[in-house]
Design a protein that fits this description.
The chain is an alpha/beta fold. The protein has helices at residues 6-12, 14-21, 32-43, 77-88, 124-137, 168-180, 199-211, 227-243; strands at 24-28, 48-52, 93-97, 116-119, 141-144, 156-160, 186-190. It has one domain: NAD(P)-binding Rossmann-like Domain (Rossmann fold, 3-Layer(aba) Sandwich), CATH 3.40.50. The chain has 8 helices and 7 strands. A 7-stranded mixed sheet has the order 3-2-1-4-5-7-6, with helices on both faces.
Length: 248
């Protein structure tokens, strides 16, 4: 049984591995969280991945994004992630979309094609649209809440959005999900209070971004060991749900 996924099969079994090989997962957002989701799914034998992002790899991504290396700076994140998947799991069927998921772009995606959807994007409007579209299609979705300005990876947990507390983003999502009739939404969130980034450092980076044409007004701090953990938690939930081992 030697092979790329033989050690995984020892724990999950052959039937579970076949279910993973037959699954298509869409990952919206390929940053610190989404990149690690893709990495773990590829290494777990997922058969097809849709990768959605319109950003390029920058030097400031090197501290936390697995697809960011000196050689990928300037590449589209979709291209860098797809190339990494092929190196790990050549049989994986990868589709890339150079697009930011927003309410205005939602019609570009047919959610009935997916077995699972990952929300690793930043905008509340996009997160809500993803949850709505997934619910309408009857597709499971898992959403990452805020990871910026946090240092404790052990504080993150999996819960339904209506069971969350403390996290400001989760609070907004709870309110808006109720308004839209979203019955449930699996999320990964933390009750850790966010830290305040150093004002001088933030101002310096905002000035540098402005000089390059960016209109960003705020920048969260981030480290290597928080978004990566959230991405791996999300991937673990997907593997458990799709393989059926979560029901044992």
């Amino acid at each position: 049984m030697q092979g790329a996924f033989s050690r995984t099969e020892l724990l999950l079994g052959a039937d579970a591995m076949r279910r993973l090989a037959d699954a298509r997962v869409a990952v919206f957002g390929l940053g610190g969280v989404g990149g690690y989701v893709v990495e773990a799914l590829a290494r777990s034998g997922i058969g097809a991945l849709d990768l959605i992002d319109n950003d390029t790899v920058s030097e400031s991504n090197l501290n936390r994004q697995i697809i960011a290396t000196r050689s990928t700076i300037g590449q589209y994140k979709t291209d860098a992630a797809a190339a990494r998947v092929v190196e790990i799991h050549p049989e994986c069927r990868v589709r890339t979309y150079r697009a930011f998921y927003l309410p205005e772009t939602r019609d570009q995606f047919d959610f009935t094609e997916y077995d699972y959807v990952v929300d690793a994007i930043d905008t509340v409007s996009g997160k809500l649209a993803l949850a709505e579209q997934a619910q309408a299609a009857g597709v499971p979705v898992i959403s990452a809440m805020g990871t910026g300005n946090k240092l404790n990876p052990a504080a993150f947990e999996v819960a339904d959005i209506y069971e969350t507390s403390v996290c400001p983003l989760a609070k907004v999502m709870r309110k808006e999900c109720r308004k839209r009739g979203i019955r449930a939404l699996k999320v990964v969130y933390s009750k850790e209070e966010a830290l305040t980034p150093d004002p001088a450092s933030v101002q310096k980076e905002l000035q540098e971004l402005a000089e390059s044409g960016s209109s960003r007004r705020s920048i969260p701090g981030s480290v290597a060991f928080v978004p990566s953990v959230v991405g791996l938690i999300i991937a673990g939930e997907i593997i458990k749900d799709l393989s059926g081992i979560g029901n044992r």
